[in-house]
Amino acid sequence: MSGVKNLLATRWGIIGVGAFIGVLAPLLQKWGNPGNMGICVACFERDIAGAVGLHRASVVQYMRPEIIGFVLGSLIAAYLFKEFRSRAGSAPIVRFILGAFAMIGALVFLGCPWRALLRLAGGDGNALFGIAGLITGIWIGTLFLKGGYNLGRAEKTHTSVGWLLPLTMLGFLVLMLIYPQIAGQPKSGVLFYSLKGPGAMHAPLIVSLLVGLGVGFLAQRSRFCTMGAFRDLILFRQAHLFTGLVTLAVVAFITNLIVKQFHPGFAAQPVAHTMQVWNFLGMVLAGLAFALAGGCPGRQLFLAGEGDGDAAVFVFGMIVGAGFAHNFGLASSPKGVGPHGIAATIIGLLVCLFIGFTMRRK
Amino acid sequence: MSSTVDARGLSCPQPVLMTMDEIKKVSEGEIEIQVDTDTSKENVSRAAESKGWTVKAVQEEGEGYRVIIAKE
User: Fold this and answer.
1) What percent of chain A has pLDDT over 70?
2) How far is CA A134 from CA A17, A44, A111, A122, A128, in A?
3) Cα A342 to Cα A324: distance, rounded to the nearest angstrom
4) CB atoms within 10 A of CB A158
């Protein structure tokens, strides 16, 4: 009965959504996005933090329309299928901190789980260490979940609470239209734009926005989640979300082969470094933070679009975390980890362990 | 006798974890799980079916659903 109502939540549905993202992410790269970064939720939220000046790393400043589209696409799907439910109040401060450290961990590796898969699909062998770290972090998270870790219940709340992040994203889009990029200028009105580096590489606004809306719509319906994929496999031996994740990687690999974007190797991969211990540990931190917060960064955007105020707080945590990551020299670059990236990773892991050990019910 | 699991307001994967715990505890009979999102409704149903339980009914109630699962 429920299966008829939501075809996208079936096995073939999740496979279809994985394939959709697997085709479009490499194409976004072909249309202008950075190497192996057709879609990267962490990198793109970091670019948004740069666009509004929360950090001033001049090479990563751009108001990424994909992120705006993810949230608004999910909002549209949630309303169309009567699933929009405003809810909030499940330990928001914890979600903010988890978001901030998830971002820091992801920026030590240089990618969210989505980009880890896309990097692998583009031939970047360093991604293997990141994915291994991601799985390890999620595995640690499942141990906490088994031990009774629980952030408590969210409460139903005013509809307008659930609108705040979508409205913020709409505001970001309006800013982009009022202050469009001017060739050769690092700033347009209040928005910062990169003149070189990954922040200067982007598909046309309308293309990015439409792909974002499409992905947001489909991911809301299918509950696509890269963290949940590994978590459910480890915790429940359930491969439902995992089939979507594998489809994404395989289809992205095939698409890369077709559009000649597959370049196997470890050295000189786009927006990547070869310090494997920190590729691994950065993603252990991110994976653990995602597991403790109940969703990968993409999923948090889709949840926020369907009214989850706690997921919205996680998103803001990630954006602020990106500010810290670049202002404090925590983020990596193709040369390797930042001057304080190692310290931040260790502190982040300790914070996550503190949260995991002390926030248990029973 | 049927037992009840109240998973309303809890985020992923708590509703499934609580359902699995209850399935282990009672091993057969009927369990009613209260959830407040469609995602939880789908996840709980899928998890129960993977453990050999059948979803007998899904009833809308207030702001959420009552998922009733059973095993003979």
Assistant:
1) 98
2) 22, 19, 11, 18, 10
3) 14
4) 10
Of B10, B47, B58, the CB nearest to A236: B47
- Report strand pairing: B64-71 vs B29-35: antiparallel
Mean pLDDT of A297-308: 98
Beta strands in chain A (DSSP E): 87-88, 155-156, 187-188, 191-192
Give the one of B16, B36, B58 whose C-beta lies nearest to A2's C-beta.
Answer: B58
What CATH topology corresponds to B3-71? Translation Initiation Factor IF3 (3.30.110)
> Is A235–B13 a contact, with Cβ atoms under 8 angstroms apart?
yes
H/E segment holding residue B71:
strand B64-71
The residue behind tokens 């046309």 is A204
Cβ atoms of A127 and A106 closer than 8 Å: no
Nearest-Cα residue of chain A relative to residue B13: A294
Q: A73: closest CA among A336, A303, A262, A279?
A: A303
Going by C-beta distance under 8 Å and a sequence separation of 6 or more, which residues neighbour residue A146? A235, B17
Which residues does chain A have within 8 Å of residue B37's beta carbon, measured at their own beta carbons? Answer: 83, 85
Who's near A273: CB < 8 A, 6+ residues apart? A110, A126, A279, A332, A333, A334, A335, A336, A337
| Short-list A145, A96, A85, A358, CA closest to B12 | A145
- The type of residue at A7 is L
What's the ipTM? 0.93
| Total number of domains in chain A | 1
Q: Residues of B near A (CB-CB distance < 8 A)?
A: 8-14, 16-17, 20, 36-39, 41-43, 45-47, 50, 58, 63
Residues of chain A that touch chain B, judged by Cβ-Cβ distance less than 8 Å: 1-2, 6, 9, 81, 83, 85, 87, 90, 145-146, 150-156, 223, 225, 228, 231-232, 235-236, 238, 240, 294-295, 308, 310
A60: amino acid identity, one letter: V
Comparing CA positions, the residue from A39, A30, A3, A23 lying closest to residue A301 is A39
Domain that holds residue A259: 2-358
pLDDT digits (tens, 9 = 90+) for A15-47: 999 999 999 999 999 999 999 999 999 999 999
Which residue in the block uniquely carries the two structure tokens 């330990």?
A91
Task: Return the amino acid letter for A335.
Answer: K
pTM: 0.96
Our CA-based measurement puts residue A294 at a distance from the nearest CA of chain B, in whole angstroms, of: 5
Whether A359 and A151 have beta carbons less than 8 Å apart is answered as yes
